[in-house]
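Case study B.
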Amino acid sequence: MKGLKSCFVKSFSHIYVEEGIEENPLTKEILKKFPKALKVRIKHYKDVFCRPRQNFFVQESSRKLILAAKKGELLYRGPDICHDFGNENFYYTSPALNCIYSCDYCYLKGMHPSANLVIFVNVEDYFKEVEDILKQKPLYLCISYDTDLLAIEGIIALSAMWIEFARGKEDLKLEIRTKSANYSAISYLVPASNVILAWTLSPTEVIKKYEKNTPPLELRLKNIIRAIGDGWKVRLCFDPVLYFENWETAYENLISRTFSVIPADKVNDASIGVFRIPRDYLKRMRKNFPPSEIIHYPYIETGGVYTYDEEVKGKIIEKLWSLLKKHIPEDKIFIL
Amino acid sequence: MFYIVTAYHAEAKPIIEYFGLKKVVKNSRFQVFAGEEVALVESGPGVVASSCATSFLLAEFEATDRDAVLNIGIAGAKNINLKKGDAILCHKIIYHDTKRAFYPDMIARHDMKEGVLETFDFPVIKGNFPEDRIEGDAVDMEGAGFFEAASFFLPPHKVHCIKVIHDYLEGVRVEPSFVSDLIRKNLPLIEGFMSSLESIDCLFSVGLSGKEKEIIDKLAGNLKLTFTMTHQLKNLILFYLSKHERLPGELYDFLNVRVNSKSEGKIYFERIKKLLC
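Model:
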């Protein structure tokens, strides 16, 4: 296997730069970090990102970076299959597409035609659109759904920029979701009361088997402890919860370990989400026959979404709910 | 299988010799040579010819996602940092006429230089054509046609243009033996790249084997499974194989069952489902 790995070019060996953004300061900053990368000029990011017949699973072994400016709609209504955590005007935005991690179950594999990482450098346009909406109504905005923003903070400090932008805007509530152990990249910032740092937590068995390249549980917990200690609002996301052999023990261990080190009273809230994925995404993921039991599990389809059958789903929710409510008040637990 | 498209016989000759290819006798417009692992077509010059020959070769040999296709040939260099005889693996191919650009996936390791290829419909000669209107590091007359046609058949990490620098657009006469020499000298580098592509394919060659597909077909026929049930069965088998090395022995017992009605088949299908879940 090790020998075969050497048949790949290193990730980010090539950086595709969209016309018109060469002088953007963020473009320059990113390019400086990859002095050996070959720069390839492109007209539009979709010329590379949306080519037909790309193999996501092959590309994951040698991801390329695409720098672009996002045009058109920049903020989207939050989808029904995501938690709104009781907030009105739930929106999400994608300052980047794709992630440096490779989780077996990740919907991005079915959503995007390519595994390459796209970073949109026109962050000011995003801020303007948020400000325009804020003139009309308050906003609950998730900025790290189609990527893991904190994980790529070393490439470009987008989390920090968004936090500074959100600071003091009372009508704006921001969620930054991550699996990373990269809190140190933003630890120098003064906590913002309207920003929630949300960590996805999974049992060690799941991390090892299905969440390739992600930090181990203990590292994620250490980062959470630091963030809470510094005064950040922290959300714990037990999402997706997966069904596998000995899943109950795995989640019992996860929750008991989590709350043995994290002060439960300091946790902002928590979510439970049983694995679910839009039908078309799963179909696309299955097309390349990845050897993954998560992808090929015989899910049940309801309303265009694949998930476990009602019996399994019920068991999962009941179990996680009973485990979580021992530590967190029921009104702070959100289920989907 | 590797497919190779060249414009001229002088480019094809060293490849034919290197891989021991034999002429395929076929009533076709194109000259085709093939061996166990490699098949080659000579397209003749030009974008349309290259595009037609590429489509012909890939369709004729029924290329699948497991295969790869290369356009190998000579090119003129605009970039003076490229030396005569350098093999260039192109990470961008521009069709000068339409300005449309194509991007192969640069995933497989190689020891060649990289550059941008620009394909023209006419021979580009310095002095006759303004240099500042050439975007590519190298220019040819086939790459873009080849790439567009090949992209209909294969994923972008399996379609590549390799160009060997022949001149600096001085309009020099093309000497066949010199062309063959240039290509021949680079074949070890090209073969190294091909072996990276092959290794990647081995790593990701998942899915169902011929035997497993046969089992599905037989079960679907014997148990009168519907199209949806057959699809579910395929997925269940993939699910089982993602956790186990081989299919359960009990599944083979179902191969001897023949049902008389679809409802009877359903009962067996539920039993198979339980077995594989």
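The domain at 70-113+121-335 of chain A is CATH 3.80.30.30 (pyruvate-formate lyase- activating enzyme). The remaining cases will be described in the next quarterly update.
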